[in-house]
Design brief:
- It comes from bacterium (Candidatus Blackallbacteria) CG17_big_fil_post_rev_8_21_14_2_50_48_46.
- The protein is mainly alpha-helical and 138 residues long.
- Among the domains are: 42 residues; 51 residues, no CATH class.
- The protein contains 8 helices and no strands.
- The radius of gyration is 28 Å and the shape is elongated.
- The N and C termini lie far apart (63 Å).
Length: 138
């Protein structure tokens, strides 16, 4: 969702500062939430600024470019390793412990799509029946 326009922010704040009603009335008048009016007034009081706050960008990846190069080499050395095994190899080489989901994201960044998958038995599912077993003979 995009932030409210600067024009709307100014009008809401001016209405509040000129005491044209309660925060609730101002929110209804401008068709915004009460929490938006509260946050806007608080931000104005604390910083004098009404610009939208920057959106968060999430966490930085724990593996830098050098680490990605090392991971690429590990994958070349162990092409059939599972993600868990790659985590262990990576920790041995770099000293950085990665979770399986983090390793998966790194793996996808390297565009390496041939990680060894678990067999059906290890996934807890029975193996698929072969065509000859599924056909009935009369």
């Amino acid at each position: 969702m995009k932030p409210y326009s600067e024009d709307l922010r100014i009008r809401v704040l001016q209405a509040y500062l000129s005491k044209q009603g309660s925060m609730r009335n101002i929110a209804e008048r401008f068709d915004v939430s009460l929490s938006f009016v509260l946050a806007l007034v608080k931000q104005y009081r604390e910083s004098g600024n009404i610009q939208p706050r920057p959106r968060g960008g999430g966490q930085k990846l724990r593996v830098d470019e050098g680490g990605m190069d090392q991971l690429s080499q590990i994958i070349q050395d162990h092409p059939k390793a599972t993600l868990q095994e790659l985590c262990e190899y990576f920790a041995q080489v770099t000293g950085i412990q990665l979770s399986v989901p983090t390793m998966s994201r790194c793996f996808k960044r390297l565009q390496n799509k041939h990680a060894r998958k678990l067999t059906p038995r290890k996934r807890g599912r029975p193996p698929k029946a072969k065509d000859s077993e599924t056909k009935e003979t009369d």
